[in-house]
Each structure stands twice: as structure tokens, then as C-alpha cells.
Amino acid sequence: MTSQETTTAAEMEETIARISSHKGVEGVMIMNREGAIIQSTLDEAKAKTHSAALSELTAKASHVVGLLDQNDELTFLRIRSKQREIMVSPDKGFILVVLQNPNISEE
Questions:
Q1: What is the residue-level pLDDT of the chain in tens, covering all 107 positions?
Q2: Which among 54, 73, 86, 106 has most CB atoms closer than 10 A?
């Protein structure tokens, strides 16, 4: 591993730990644009299911944003249901996904 890769891995672990500490967070996942899981707090089966679906949805949402305005790009995608909230933050090479229960109140 190069120092750049080590720093990136350390930064990812720190980011996951920081986000996971928030009340209501059920899982955090970092994947590449193709849906390959880089790091995840979810169990393997759930991580694979979420990564496949969310990488595809992110690609489609990015495409729609580009169709509507060629000078724009997708920066954040939020999906909320009665039981769960999924937040997707795409970057150049990675996609950060946070799953949380929106029904847990901050105290």
C-alpha cells in the first residue's frame, strides 16, 4: 500500500466512525461508482444488495441531472420511506451511503 492509499483508508475509517456515532444511523457504506464495496458497517448480504441497487440508482439520477442541465451534476440524493432514510453522496470515484432510521429523535 502506498501512503496515499493508507491515508485514504484511514480517512474512510474515520469518516465511517464519525457518521456511525450519530443517533439513528443503521449503516454506512463506501463503494466505488460501479458498486464494488470498499468499506461497510452492514453485513455482507445487506451491503451487496444495497450497493447494487444504489450504485445503479445513483448512475440513473446523475444521468437525469445531466440531461436537464449539462452544466450540472448530482451532489446528493436522499430517499425517505416510512421506516428508513437513505442518503447518497457521490464523489468522483466513490459513493458514500448512510442508512438511518428517521424515527429516532435526537435527545
A1: 444 455 577 888 888 889 988 889 999 999 999 999 999 999 999 999 999 999 999 999 999 999 999 999 999 999 999 999 999 999 988 999 999 998 886 54
A2: 54
